[in-house]
Design goal:
The complex is a heterodimer of chains A (182) and B (171). Chain A is an all-alpha fold and 182 residues long. Chain A contains 9 helices and no strands. In chain A, helix 2 (14-21) crosses helix 4 (61-89) and helix 3 runs antiparallel to helix 8. Chain B has 171 residues and is mostly helical. Chain B has one domain (2-165). Chain B is elongated and about 55 Å long. Classes of the chains: A mainly alpha (182), B mainly alpha (171).
Chain lengths: 182, 171
Amino acid sequence: MSAAHILESLQSSGLAERIRNSLFLFPLIESFHVVGLTLVFGTTFIMDLRLLGMASTRRPFTKVASDIVKWTWAAFALTATTGFLMFMTNATVYFHNPMFRLKMLALALSGINMLIFELTAGRKAHRWENDRAAPLAGKLAGIFSLLLWISVIFLGRWIGFTTTNSEAPDVDTKTIDDIFNK
Amino acid sequence: MHNFALWLAQTRISLEIQTHAWAVPTIQSVHIAAIGIVVASVFMIDLRIFGWAGNDQTLLETTRRFGPWLWGALAVLLATGALMVTGEPVRELMSLSFWLKMFMIAVGVTLAIGFQFSLRRNGASWESNKNPGTMKFLAILTLLVWCSIIILGRLIAYDHIWGRWSLNPSA
């Protein structure tokens, strides 16, 4: 099955059609996407600042991490799910949008950055966890993480300015008036 | 309000924002990053109240750790928010979501100030957790208020969803 086929079948699925044809589903999904990503960014920001020695420096790195990382992943799950739902509604257009592709690249790079950190400084965290800042490999991971996540936010916002989404559904239009029976 | 919006749209700074395609998404991105810092700070303080994170620090220490970031990011939000209103006055001011959002911000900021004052005054009894029920309720309420602010902020772009209550149904 080719990429075009997969995109086509995603786009023509019942779920995608339902989101497209509702006036408030897409806006709501997008809103929860933002709730999720603010939590991903905010919690990642705390970790990055700890690595750079700029905040939470009095707490051991491993403690900061064990408090936060599980929530970052939970928020990421919400963001990825809502992101996928939005992608479905107009899969072919998003797939060919350069901002979307750059955003996926930035996400992949931030995953690789995290993996490299885990294999280098993260592995020996017990040796430096009480230091004010992480060793060089950790600091670099913190800087890359910050830059990549800011790029993800910016590119995500640009997608909205460079594609048309389901803002103008054609059939079966529903608004809040329909919920309250006029 | 509509006349004010039209006047604002003719000001020099508004025209500058309107004529640079990168300006609005850039300001919005900074706005989103800053709300991320606010909501994560509120979330971390909430986790401490629930005893789910940072239990090696007192609640007062936890708020001292996140408080300055919260207020600093709020200042950035106010500045970038003002720029967005200036850049697209009709879109923002003629939107029900925008005014609901402003109301929720007033609630959120009042809760945050009330929390800080009361923690400073009754710190000791808060630490010994004499009324965890009330505190946990307020913690969840505060987080929900900030989530609603984020959601309403995004809904400014889709004011039509409010149907006949929308201030600008064509949005």
